[in-house]
Structures are given as structure tokens and as C-alpha cells.
Write a structure and sequence with these properties.
alpha/beta, six-stranded parallel sheet, 15% strand, globular, prenyltransferase, Flavoprotein
């Protein structure tokens, strides 16, 4: 592990996991951002912890310091590269526009979180961080995973899109001929990275040959 006093990371990216199905997308995104040497600020809602336990074999602690240690070990992060914040940590940098700027991804994004952000509820740190991203005109990518979408969901997505938020549903394509679930997960993660302007080799871009990019788990 690198010394936190000497390690130099690329600009931070905030990743929030909420209570929709698709925890694998958010966990994989954290891995890839770490591999790209970005500092990663993580928030995981109480419902998301339940989803992670249901959908994966992963057990993550709720306490922020222990969560950061667990995610760092899982992703191979350097010391201090992954930081985690609790739901009411109002001193976190993401809680204010005067804090350090960061692009933000809510992945997966529950329709409850979608509604809260669209209406400016800010009842917890994830919602407040998204509110800050909107008002400061920072990059905010929301990855809803629901089916079917109701008119309420669609109206909230339209309202947020008009504010500059990227609505990126967890709906992987198949034109890259996925061979595994990991390939489907990486399809969505690759699209998120494209929105963040982060180079990757998860899958070939349209028009590239399959051999020029990797869809394996080594990032």
C-alpha cells in the first residue's frame, strides 16, 4: 500500500449505491476507478447494504472507516484512495458546494433516490451530494434500475435531464456479444466512464475491433 502522505491520485469521483437491484454495477465501478488511480468517495445506503447481501456473496460493514478498509482491500486501493461517508456526515466534502469538486455517480439509483433528487429533498448525504452536484453544474450520472418505469419515474428523469443530469439506465446492450454476466456489467460501467471522460479498456468503442479492448475483470 502507498503512503497516504505521498500517494497522488487523480481527481475524486463520488460513487453512491442505493437500494435498487444492480449492486454489481456500483461495486465494479469502484474497482475500475481505483485501477484508474482516481480517489473514490463512497456512500452506501442502508437499503443498498441489504441489496448487496442479497445479490452477492459480499459482506460490507456499515461503519465508514471499516467500509473504506473493506472496499480498499477488495479493489486493491492504495492507502487513503477510498473514503466512505455515513448517511448524515454533513461535514463530508460532498455536502457543500464549497467542498472539493467531484463528479458523482449514483449506481444503482433507486426510484426513491431519483424522486428525492428531482425534488431537492436532501434528507441524507447521498441526496444532498446530488443536490450539490446539480446546483454547482457538476457532472452527475444516475443509473436507475427499474422495470417498467411509471409516469412518475419518467417525469423525474426528464426533469433531471433538463437540468443537465445524465440518466443512464442499467440496460446493457448486446452488440459486443457478451460471454458472461461480467461482460454485461462492464458494458454499463464503460458507458459511465465515457460520461466521466475516463479512458478504459472494458469493451471496444463502436467501430473498433473486439481485439483492441478487453472485457476481462482485470480492468
Amino acid at each position: 500500500m502507498a503512503n497516504p502522505m505521498t500517494a497522488t491520485f487523480k481527481p475524486p469521483v463520488t460513487v453512491a449505491l442505493t437500494g435498487a437491484s444492480g449492486a454489481q454495477y456500483g461495486l465494479r465501478l469502484i474497482e475500475v476507478l481505483v485501477a484508474a488511480n482516481h480517489e473514490v468517495w463512497v456512500m452506501i445506503s442502508k437499503a443498498a447494504h441489504m441489496v448487496i447481501a442479497t445479490e452477492t456473496e459480499i459482506t460490507l460493514p456499515a461503519q465508514p472507516e471499516r467500509l473504506a478498509a473493506a472496499l480498499s482491500e477488495r479493489s486493491g486501493a492504495a492507502d487513503g484512495q477510498v473514503r466512505c461517508f455515513g448517511r448524515e456526515d454533513w461535514m463530508a466534502p460532498v455536502a457543500s458546494g464549497s467542498g472539493a469538486p467531484s463528479a458523482m455517480v449514483i449506481c444503482p439509483c433507486s426510484t426513491g433516490t431519483l424522486s428525492a433528487v428531482a425534488t431537492g429533498a436532501s434528507n441524507n448525504l447521498i441526496e444532498r451530494a446530488a443536490d450539490v452536484a446539480v446546483k454547482e453544474r457538476r457532472t452527475l450520472v444516475m443509473v436507475p434500475r427499474e422495470s417498467p418505469f411509471s409516469p412518475i419515474h419518467l417525469e423525474h428523469m426528464l426533469a433531471l435531464s433538463r437540468l443537465g443530469v445524465v440518466i443512464l439506465p442499467a440496460a446493457p446492450g448486446f452488440y459486443h456479444r457478451p460471454q458472461s454476466i461480467d461482460d454485461l456489467i462492464d458494458f454499463i460501467v464503460a458507458r459511465i466512464l465515457n460520461q466521466l471522460g475516463i479512458d478504459h479498456q472494458l469493451m471496444p468503442r463502436w467501430g473498433e475491433k473486439q481485439s483492441t479492448a478487453s472485457t476481462t475483470k482485470d480492468g
